Amino acid sequence: MDVRALLMGLGFAVMWASAFTSTRMIVTEAPPLLSLALRFALSGVIGVLIALAMGQSWRGLTRVQWRAVVVLGLCQNALYLGLNWTAMQWIEAGLASIIAATMPLLVAFLGWTLMGERLRPMGTGGLLLGVLGVAIIMGARLQGGSDPTGIVMCFVAALALAVATLTVRGASSGGNVMMIVGLQMLVGAVTLGLIAPWFEDWTVTYTPRLVIAFLYTVIVPGLLATWVWFLLVGRIGAVRAATFHFLTPFFGVATAALLLGEDLGAGDVIGVAIIMAGILAVQLSKAPPVRRPPPS
Q1: What is the dihedral of CA 287, 236, 5, 112, to 10 degrees?
Q2: What pLDDT tens digit does each residue of the chain (296 aa) get?
Q3: Burial 33-66 (b: 16+ CB within 10 A, else e)
């Protein structure tokens, strides 16, 4: 992996993980789905305007890219983030980031079972390690009183993101990346805007923390992280790009502990370490073998 891809991946992991903390700040003071719809509307408009200023146009999008706009708008934005934002009314930001980190394992599992991708013994072992790590964390958290409904919602959200990741392969190869980013957020805004009024009331407790967290979420995880993710997938592929999600628990838990004062138990530490080892094993199992030159 080249240095540029490494820096892009690390930057994405930090931005993506920090979104859990800023989301937790928002949903404790405002309705999650309506807030998320507003965030997508703002991010989408800004993204489209930036794309137009860069000379990009929706007329130039390929069929694959339009499919990515719809799939990401529904799976990543409406489902993944909608479920996560709703769940974080009841569960901690650190726990949500840990569950989200299982996405690369789900990508590998779906690719293996549904798309016929080969998985070496090391990859199979990685999947088993991931399941073990999740079981340890969930056991500790459920004993500690974490809400089961919120946990289930986060796992369904991770599955939706895995489907989106597999579906958008090749979406960035035709250019117009920022236009795709903006349009898929507008799809999420419309979807959640239609759904939200049926499930929640617009009751907001306005505080400086809410305003700062909302603006940060619109700009950094909303626009910048999504743009970097598209570029990263186009540069190194969906499976290798998904590797950087294994850093989400570390950065997510650290940010939540620093800004929200959340505790981290021994079960969390052990489970995260096992999950990270499992994800690493899955990714290493997909790496091409090193061809050594014959001895002279």
Answers
A1: -50
A2: 577 888 888 888 888 888 889 999 999 899 999 999 999 999 899 889 988 998 888 887 888 788 888 888 898 889 999 999 999 988 888 888 888 877 777 877 887 777 666 767 887 787 788 778 878 877 777 776 778 888 899 989 988 888 887 776 655 556 677 888 889 999 999 999 999 988 888 888 889 999 999 999 988 887 888 788 878 877 777 667 766 766 777 788 788 888 888 777 777 778 778 877 877 787 677 655 444 444 43
A3: bbbbbbbbbbbbebbbebbeeeebebeebeeebe
